[in-house]
Structure formats: C-alpha cells, structure tokens
Amino acid sequence: MTPSVNRHRQFLHGILALLLFAIAQTATAQWWRFGSDSAQPVFSDLLFNNVSALRVDRSLQFSPEDLDQRKIAVRGRAEVGQGKIGRVEASLDDGANWTAIPVGDRGLFAFEFVPEIERAYRFKIRALSTTGQSSDEAEHAFEFKVVKEDNRALAKAAFQQLLDRYMARDRSGFMSLVSREFLGNETALDSAIGNDFRFFDSIRIEPTIQRMAASDNRWTIYFNFRRQVRSVRSGQMLSDQAMTSVTLIRDGDGYKLQELAAPLIFGVSDPSNVATYVTGEAVGRPVLTVNEKTGEASTQTQGQTTESSGGSGRVDSGNVDLNMGQGYSFRTSAKVNNVQPGGDFAFGGFFELFLGNEVEAAAVLGSFSLSQPPAINPGALTPGLEFVHLQVGQVIGMKLVSGKYALVRLAAQTGQDTRRFEYLLSDTPNFK
Amino acid sequence: MKQTLIASGVIWALWCWPTGQASAQGNAPLPAPQPNAPSASTSGPGVIVPLSPPETLNGPQIEKKPVFGNFQYDSGLPEKSLDVTIRSMFEDYRLSGPGRASSFYQPGSHWLHDVELTARQPIGEELKTEFNAVIRYTDSKRHDPAVWSLQRVQFIARDQVNHLTLGDYYATLSQYSLNQAIKGLGYQRNFGESTYLRVVAGTMAPRWDHLFGEPHNETIQRDVVGLRAQNAGDNYRVGLNLMSASDHDNASVRTIQDTYRQVLPALDWEYRTDGGVRLSGEHAQANTRKQTAAGVRRDLAGTAHRVNADGSLGELRWRMRTERVSSDFVTLGGGAAIDRLRYYLRGDYRLNKTWSVFLADDWYRNNLDDQISATTRTHIPEAGVTARGLFDRRNLTLTTSLRQRQIRTEAPQYDRNISDRLYVSLSDRFQEVSVRGEVEALLNKRKSTAGVRTDNDDYLYRFAVDSRHLFAEGRYDFRPYLTLEHQIVQDPTTGKSVLTDGVLLDFRLVAPGNLTYAMNFEQRNVNNGTATVNDNSLLRYGLSVAYRPGQFPGSSIRAEAGKAHYNFSDNAKDYRERYVRVMLDIPFSLEK
Fold first, then answer.
1. Closest Cα to residue A264, out of A189, A164, A360, A204?
2. Is residue A225 assigned to a domain?
3. Is A159 a domain residue?
4. Which residues in chain A are closer than 8 Å to B217, comparing Cβ atoms?
5. Smallest CA–CA separation between B67 and chain A, in Å?
6. The domain that contains A166 carries what CATH number?
7. How far is the C-alpha of B291 from the C-alpha of B271, rounded, in Å?
8. Which residue, of A271, A301, A331, is where some domain finishes?
9. Please, which pLDDT band fits residue B496 given cuts at 50, 70 and 90?
10. d(CA A51, nearest CA chain B) in Å
11. In this complex, how many residue pairs, one in chain A and one in chain B, have their CB atoms less than 8 Å apart?
C-alpha cells in the first residue's frame, strides 16, 4: 500500500465519518417519524398517455408522434394511509392556477389537455386528503414540452448524451441514462463502465450514423465509430474503428439505453455479460479490449460471438512434460494416460503427436517462439487431423471443439521418451 | 431467396383475406378512458379538462396498438408530399508534432453528403404509400468504405388493416428470435384492435452494395424468414414467433468464419395483475447446424428462458429478473447473453418523504453444460440509502451505496476476485446553480491459482457545477458546466499509483435569432508513477456556432473549430491536432 493510497483511504474514512455524523443529526430529529408519514398523500401512478411520469425529475419531452389526437391524457392514482383522498389538483403554470380533478373511490383520476408545440408547461400536481394533508407539490413538478423534433431526433440526441457522459467519465450520469429494461446485465454494465474509466483515459469517440431503424417504441442506431483511448497502465494511445449498434427505448422522461452490440462502445471490459449480439460488419476487425484483472488494454480481433471480442482478454500459457503415451487435455488442464482419444494432444513416441477428439482442426505452422505468436488463420487448419510429425521448435495450431484456439510448441527433448511442450490457449485466433 | 418468395405468397394471400370487423375498426389505438367527459379539443390549448375517474389503469399500460417497424405513417403526416433533405459536412484536420502518427484523425479535408428523398402518395381512398431513399457521397473511409453508397431505400404501403414495407426494414419478432434490420419485406395484417400477424423475409446484409457484389466490410450472407402472431387484452399480451435463418455457402468470408442454419420458435408474454404486478417473459428453443470455417459440422440445440416481474407493495417497489440461456443457444437474429444463469432482485423502500433505502442482489454463472474447463460465478450484493430534502433543503440529496462484487472461477483456473465499491454522492441546487460531489472507492482483492495475491485500491473524486441563467427577459440562455476530477488507480501488478487530474469546462449560450454559441475546454494530466511509462497531459479547446434559419423550418448550420495538444514525458511522442467542421442540414419541401 503506497503512502498516497493510505492518505486517500484515511481521507475517505473522514468523509464517511462526517456523513454519518450529518445523517445522525438529521436522523435524530426525524427518527420517530420513520414510517409514520402515512397521513400525507402520495402518487403511486402518473401516466402521460402511456409514458410513466412518476419519477420524472426535471423535464419530460414528447414528440408530436407521442400525442394521441393532439392530446395528452394524464391518468394516475393517489393514495393515503390515514383518511381518504378528497381531491387532486393539477397546474400547468407552476402552481399559479390549479384545476380540481375528480377522484374515484380508489384514488384514480384522469384529465387531459391539448399542448402547444414548443411551449414549456410547468406541470405540478398535488393530492389533498380528507384529513387536510397535502402531498408534496415538489415531488411531481417538472417542465413538460412537446418539441418539434420527431422521435428520430430525440433518440439521436439521447445517443449523443450517452457519448458525452461516457467521454466525460461520469459513471453515475451515464447509468442514469440506462433503461430498467436493459437487455444485457445492467449490474455488469455498471461495473464495466467503472472499469473503463479506471483503465482508459482521454476517451474520444466519433460516430458516423449509417442508419436508424425504429420498431415497437425503440430505435436502433447503426454507426461507424472511430475511437481513441489512452491506456492508464501502459500510457499507450490505442485506437480502433469498426461498425456497431445501440438500441434506445422510450423509458420515463426520454430515450434510454436498452441494448448494446459487440464490439462494445460502452463497458468494454465485460462483453459477454453486456452485449447480446455481434455486429456482422465488425467480425474480424481489431477492436479495443481490456483485461479487468491486469488493467491491460489492447486491440483484439472481433469474433463471431460476444465472448470472442477478447472475452476475458485472457491468453493462458503453460508447459507440460509428457512421457511417451501420455496426453494433455485443455478441457481439464490435466495430463491423461491414454494416447487417444483422451486428450487434446498426446506424445506418441519419437516426434509423433496424436490429436484427440477435443481437437476440431489443426495444422503445423512452422518453427517460432511463443513469445511473439502469430494469429491462427482458421481457414488454413485441416479438420479431422489425427497425428502430425513435429520437430523441436515447431508449432502446431489447433481449433478446439470448445471454440478456443491453441498453439502447442515442441520445446525440448528432455529424455529418451519424454518431451516438453509449451502452449498458449486463447478465446480467439489472436494470441496477443 | 426461396424463403422470400414463399413469404411473398403468404402476404398476397393475407392481403386478399376478407377483413370483416377489422376493416371497420382499423388499427386505431385504444382510446384513453374518458367517459362522460367534454372534449379537450373544444377547450383550447393548454387548458386542463377534468375527466371522470377511470375504472382501472391496467388496460392501456400494455401497448396494444399494432406497431410496425419503421412505419411512421400516422394521421399527422400529409398524405401527399415530396421532400428532399440535404445533409452535408465538411471537415479539415491538421496534425503536427513528432508523434502525429498516433492521432486517430485522417489529415486533410473531407466531405460527407447525404441526400434523402421522401415521397408520399395516396392510391385510391384507402391505400397510402411512402418512398424513402438516402444516397451518400464521402471521400473519407471514416464515414463509409465506399465513395458512393445507397444507405437506405424503402417503400411502404398501408391501408386500414395491411402494412407492407419493401427494402430496408427493421424486423422485430421478439428479443430471442429476431431484432435486426434486414433488406427484404415486412408485412403485417391486423385482426381487430389487438391481434396481428407479422411476416418478415429478406437478407441481413447490412449494406446494399453487398447485394451488388461490392465487398466493403463484407459479412456472411444470411437469409431470414420469420412469423409473429400477437394477441393482447386489457391485462395480457402473448406472442408466438418462428424464425428461420441460413447462411450462404458461397460467401467469400465463408473460409474464415463459421456459418449456420437455424430454426428458432419462441413464445413471449406479459401479464399485469390487478394489484399492479407486471409479469413478462420469453421462452425459446434454437436448433442450429453450425459449420466451422474448417468445414466441421455440428448440431446444436439450446433453450433460453427469461421471466421478469416488478410491482409495488405499499412503500416497497420491487423488481425481479431471472434468465437461463444454455450454452448451445445460438440466435442468428435476436439477442441473448449465451451460457448464463442469472437471478436478480431489487427492492426500494421509502421510509418517509426524505429517506429511502434499497437492497439489490445479482447472481450469475456460466458453463451451464460443462463445456469449458472452469465455471465462473459472480455475486453482486448492494445496499444503499438515498435522502432527498435533508436539512429542509428541497434539492439537497445524499446517495450512498455499498456494493460487493465477488467473481470466483473454479479450479483448475482458480481465481477469486472481490471488489468492494463505496459510493457517496451529495448534490444540491442554489437557485440556478446545481452542484454535485461524488466520492467512489474501489477496494480490490484477488487470489489466483499461481498463489498470486493482489490488493489494490482505486479512488475517484468528482465535483460538478451545472447552471442555467436567463438574461434580457429570457432572450439569452446561458448554461455553464464545470467538472473537476481526481482519480487514483493502483496498478494491480506493480502496486504503483496512477494519478489523473482533469477539468472540463463547457459554456453554452442560446441567443435570439436561433443562434447557439458554445465553448469547451478540457485539461487532463496523468502521472504514472513508473519510470518506464510515460506521463502525459491533454489540453483541448473548441468553439462552435449553430444557426437555425427561420426561413427554412427544420434546417440548421453548425460550424466548429478546435485544437488539441497531447504532451508526453517523452517529447518524441508529442502531437497536436487542429480541426474545422461545418455541418449543413436543409430540408426542401417540393410539393404539398
């Protein structure tokens, strides 16, 4: 632990102590009120046409397409623990004028209005109980506006906002623009965004939108991007250029992120949990990846699955000494005693190497060191190969049934009937 | 294209099918509940018109309006029109300094022009048609690999019960089965208000020039045909989907990529109870034949299931997600995180108008069918507190949360990673000025097979000021935004700390005459603490002006210029970038 980090840990503890003190001061004054506020009415539903406005904080924007016969129908429900809801009142001018809305037995109410395009309405709503209590007016006070732009422009603006928050390295601001209906794992996305900001710096992304497609209240934006980041760990500037897509859905006060494709533009460190499909045009292109465990950022070839865009970013390496007749399995990471078909490869005596049933295709690639390995060309591998002759220094490339790729090098003859093999195991044909 | 021909036959038969009640009702959306109420349209704009209380809120929660791809042909659009929109961009980049090869800009001047044509024309009294096409010219590979390209071409025809799209179409069946832009046809026939049948067929080629033999960013050629039938009621929706896709054997990328054939049926549903609980889910089975680039064929059969629920219980709002996608579930047109079992639960409880607490738990694992050597399990519990209106200040908000992320990979690749994240945020508003301070600490511990233990902590401090000021009776709208940031990241392997300091300043002024001026400035310094790794600093600043001419509604002109300096402790890597961009967007309406 460096002195600098120790200082920050102490500082953080200080902040926490201060916060606890502040909370304790406030909580002391309000502790007995916990759960006893049920005399105050609250709104449990608030719909503008079919869009929920219950948690709108500052503003709600509609496009003309969101209107239903030029109207907004507001429907909702007010509830109270003690007594009944006597009245609901709504205002479009920040509370200067209130209109009484009739309330049903179960607190349901409805009203409508015709908004003018591009006019900002300061919407407020309050509920009054029969015991004279009023709901908090500030709770549901926001600006409502029907803008000229169509939904295509609103979705485009939301995409730009996501990029701005990401490039400003604002994790919480970014996550507030992610829909609750996110189709990948939103918890994993939150962690991956945090990792991006730990391992990348000076993030710049310039997209060129190729096409936008709409369906069922969603917009999918297909775009070319050019991206540059600086690896915090190595200080190296890394850039990539590829095609990918994002999907946005109408959620509460605007369009929010619903789905991400690989190669990922956000949350690069965890594609297998964040992306749900791969953009075909990006397959085979070098794209940015980061290994969460080491903080190492690099570019790797985008594969046909979300996993293989670097997946964990891991290339496993090792060596194994085999006696004649022994084999080694990548699936179990253990030696096996049967020459065939037990393992991925087995030393058969002299310079013969048997290939087991875990090998889908293979080819001898030549003599080279595994410290600077070339990528495997899957098309050059021979399927169904059962054995090869391998000289010391030569490397065989394999595609395994598990979808992984391996490079195996006969490193040395360590005895009359023993050989040492070195290997690299990767999710992709690229081993760097 | 045999599948497309079959789909065309199905569409023809459906179009000619007697409409019965459907044609009388059309596809109008369900009216909002307004019994015994006066019409708002008679009361003028901006006037609240009270309605009788509705019986329920459940019905309209579920979208019963049959929606159809890219179709935006609503009653608000003119029936007959001819519009041309020109979007142009000029950009010029200048690079200097010994390390200029590191810049991601392509130096020199480049152009991008998009011309979009939209024509609408009714045929007879019932049928409405629309044609839309976009042609692009660019001399920059950044924007497009081709100099000239057809970006979109689409023809839409619609009457009361039939919708047909030819050309570019966003094919949507369900999440697992199909959600992809295709080139081909899409057809939907509505039966009454809440039932429809949708047929899609075409190719997933992302570019039109692929169909003309141009190899720009060529992908596997994949044909798809799909069918969806949906029925919805006041509190339910159910959809049946069938998708079939197959890759061409003769594509040139076939030798380096795997190819597939697939049939995928799926069922999706949604149900809302009277108590406000919303349940939804999808169940799919994928039968796939995979042929590797090396020519090895393998049959894969996999299933995917997801069930989501959310609702309220007094002051408690809760959400639940569960999903199981097997290792061999391959979807060629839909989306899913493969080889995953996941449970997620979150509850938000409001203690009173100030305080609320939340608890969340996310657990997921892979290797469901033992296809890889080690299983990884991830568990992320989180607890947090939010207080709004502390100390009688309406906008003073405190948010704090503690999250633990445990990732455990079993032997033989044993690896255990635990990260504790503590997050504290405090925000307030002083008249027009909003301020937010955030502290985030990430305490990481890791132990691996090799006996390697690492213990590294990361800290992030961020302070942001955001405000909006109106001058001259609101004619000038000034919006400054400032962010200060300090980050300490400990390198997991060396234990050295990397320090980053950043400041970002953005001014925006909206002035009379539809003018918007903007200026931004960014400075960022990184100190690596390791002699072998370069420290660096970044300085960027830019100016922009945007104008929306009143004479051409919907048009805009924007010009921006800026400069960036990248400096490294090794001066041989330094470089500078200068740019100028001008963007123009002009729609012309040729006929109305």
1. A189
2. yes
3. yes
4. 243, 281
5. 6
6. 3.10.450.50
7. 40
8. A301
9. confident
10. 9
11. 362
Q: Examine the domain organization and report whether A95 and A76 are in the same domain.
A: yes
Q: Identify the DSSP state of B67.
A: -
Which residues of chain B make contact with A43, given a CB cutoff of 8 A?
Answer: none
Asked, for residue A12, whether it belongs to a domain, the answer is no
Domain range summary for chain B, segments of one domain joined by +: 340-467
Q: DSSP 3-state helix, strand, coil percentages of chain B (rounded to 5)? A: 5, 60, 35
CB-based contact (8 Å) between A122 and chain B? no
Residue of B nearest to A121 (CA): B46
Residues in chain B: 592
Same domain (yes/no): A112, A213: no
Q: Name the residue facing B337 among A23, A168, A184 (closest C-beta).
A: A184
A142: containing domain: 42-146
Cα gap B136→B147, rounded to integer Å: 8
Inter-chain residue contact B457 with A8, CB threshold 8 Å: yes
Q: Per residue of chain A (432 residues), what is the pLDDT tens digit?
A: 555 556 666 666 676 676 666 655 554 444 333 333 457 787 877 888 877 787 776 788 888 877 877 889 898 888 887 778 888 999 998 888 999 999 987 788 999 999 988 888 989 999 998 888 888 787 788 888 888 777 888 899 999 999 999 998 888 889 989 998 899 999 999 999 998 988 888 889 999 988 888 877 789 999 999 999 888 877 778 888 889 999 999 877 789 999 999 899 999 988 889 999 888 888 878 888 887 777 777 777 787 777 644 444 456 777 888 888 788 877 766 777 765 555 666 766 667 788 887 787 888 888 888 876 777 877 778 887 888 888 888 899 988 876 678 888 888 888 888 888 888 887 777 775
Measured between beta carbons, which residues in chain A are less than 8 angstroms from residue B498?
A: 232-233
Residues A292 and A420 in one domain: no
DSSP class of residue B253 equals G
CB contact under 8 A, A119 and B46: yes
Omega cis (within 30) before A115: no
A191 and A133 housed in the same domain: no
Asked if A82 and A200 sit in the same domain, the reply is no
Higher pLDDT, B238 or A329: B238
Residues in chain B closer than 8 A to A307 (CB atoms): 338
Whichever domain contains A95, its CATH number is 2.60.40.10
| Burial class of residue A227, CB neighbours in 10 A (0-12, 13-18, 19+) | buried
Q: Does A273 touch chain B (CB under 8 A)?
A: yes
Over residues B191-219, mean pLDDT: 82
- Report how far residue A155's alpha carbon sits from residue B70's, in angstroms, rounded to the nearest whole number: 14
Mean pLDDT of B276-281: 88
Nearest Cα to A126, choosing from A79, A88, A169?
A88
User: Are residues A240 and A365 part of one domain?
Assistant: no
Cα–Cα dist B181/B186, whole Å? 11
Residue A127 belongs to some domain of the structure:
yes
Average pLDDT, integer, range B32-45: 47
DSSP states of A305-371 as a string?
SSTTTTTT--EEEEEEEEETT-EEETTTTEEES-SSSSSSEEE-STTEEEE-TTEEEEEEEEE--TT
Counting the structural domains of chain A, the total is 3
- A106/A191 same-domain check: no
CA separation for the pair A257, A177 (Å, rounded): 6
Domain finish residue from A244, A276, A301: A301
Are A292 and A319 in a shared domain? no
